[in-house]
Write a structure and sequence with these properties.
By secondary structure, the protein is mainly alpha-helical. It is about 75% helix and about 0% strand.
Length: about 100
């Protein structure tokens, strides 16, 4: 039970970190910054920043939460993917999927 709780907390933190990243990236892009500039400033991989911007471009009506969920469901956020696989093994479900 304790391990499951710890994993759930870790998963929530990972999702929160991703949601925060999406929010910041979209704000910076709205100010006219390019993916490379944002990646450098946030010390993130440029590919991750480009993915966020691409999803927003393809789905302009998506909220930050929807973008984060899409990234998780498409396996482009590795830490969350690992947690997703663990949860699937344990109980067959993942809260955001």
């Amino acid at each position: 039970m304790k391990k499951a709780r710890e994993r759930a907390l870790k998963q929530g933190k990972d999702q929160g970190v991703l949601l925060n990243l999406v929010t910041i990236v979209l704000k910076k892009a709205k100010k006219g910054m390019r993916a490379a500039e944002i990646a450098d400033m946030l010390e993130e991989e440029e590919a991750r920043i480009q993915t966020i911007l691409k999803i927003k471009e393809e789905h302009p009506d998506y909220t930050e939460e929807q973008i984060a969920m899409k990234m998780i469901s498409e396996s482009v956020y590795p830490a969350t993917l690992r947690n997703k696989e663990r949860l699937n093994e344990e109980n067959g479900k993942f809260p955001l999927a």
